[in-house]
Amino acid sequence: MSKVELLSLETLPNQPVAFIKSLGRTVVIAPHPDDESLGCGGLMATLRAMLVPVAAVLITDGTMSHPHSRKFPPAARRALREAEFAEALSLLGVEADASLLLGLPDGAVTDLPPAAFEQAVASLTKYLEDWAPATIVVPWRRDPHPDHRATSKLVQAAVARLPIAPRVLEYLVWAWERAAPDDLPRSDEVTGWRLDISTVLAQKQQAIAAHRSQIDGIIDDDPTGFQLAPQMLAHFARPYEVYVEALPSLQ
Q1: Mutual angle of helices 201-209 and 74-91, in 10-degree steps
Q2: pLDDT at 251
């Protein structure tokens, strides 16, 4: 793929904060607890400061971050990560009880049997019908994590069943760190913009920090466990967030 086809994420135009209010009722879709804060924390905090309703959907149970921990067996890991998710949302001004926890198996969303995939799509569709968002914010379709890509497909299937299709924005998480050229957004498929989050950056950082199990090593009995590395976190300490949207001809 020629480099000229790639969207230049670092030089995308800035959208004024006032534009964000036009997104209306918004649902953020997070494959794992922490993706919502990393990718969209600034957007959620900005919308809530404008009193725009915001909710979040958590796709997986988050238990594969430390799969060999005995101190925190699967049920305890799930409870811990869901509590961190709720705390992060609260810090961003989002009411946790407006959320949907699908509880799909972490690390295995791509391997769902057809019946389980259909059940997940039906649950998500019902939630979106009831919540009636004007905008849905989902992981970038080729974000280099299997659960993120599978989440994108799951959301696409649910949106296709809605009587009125909401606007769909996409955010990047692992693409900042692990993307191959073919993973990145292309200028022939999406347009993109940056959101200045400087006024809510501290709030976003607090929400990220609420995911202690991914940062502070509180699950300390699994040497193979996942932790967000400082170089990864640096991508989300910038005073802006990037969003892309499919070109009208591809929607």
Answers
A1: 170
A2: 64
Give residue 7's domain range. 3-250
Tell me the residue type at 106. Answer: D
DSSP string for residues in 120-140: HHHHHHHHHHHH--SEEEEE-
pLDDT, one tens digit per residue, over 105-160 is 999 999 999 999 999 999 999 999 999 999 999 999 999 999 999 999 999 999 99
Q: Going along the chain, which residue ranges are E strands?
A: 14-15, 26-30, 54-60, 100-104, 135-139, 167-171, 190-196, 240-246
Number of domains observed in the structure of the chain? 1
Domain of residue 121, CATH code? 3.40.50.10320
Q: Which strands sit side by side in the sheet containing 54-60, from one edge to the other?
A: 14-15, 190-196, 240-246, 167-171, 135-139, 26-30, 54-60, 100-104
Mean pLDDT across the chain, nearest whole number?
A: 94
Q: Are the C-beta atoms of 34 and 145 separated by less than 8 Å?
A: no
**With contact defined as beta carbons under 8 Å apart, do 186 and 71 qualify?**
no
Spatial contact of 131 and 25, defined as CB atoms under 8 Å apart: yes
d(CA 240, CA 251): 26
Judge whether residue 233 has pLDDT over 80. yes
Alpha-carbon separation of residue 149 from 109, 146, 200 (angstroms) = 9, 5, 28
Tokens of 38: 């990393």
Other Cβ atoms within 10 Å of 74 Cβ, number: 16
φ, ψ of residue 109 in degrees (nearest 5)? -65, -35
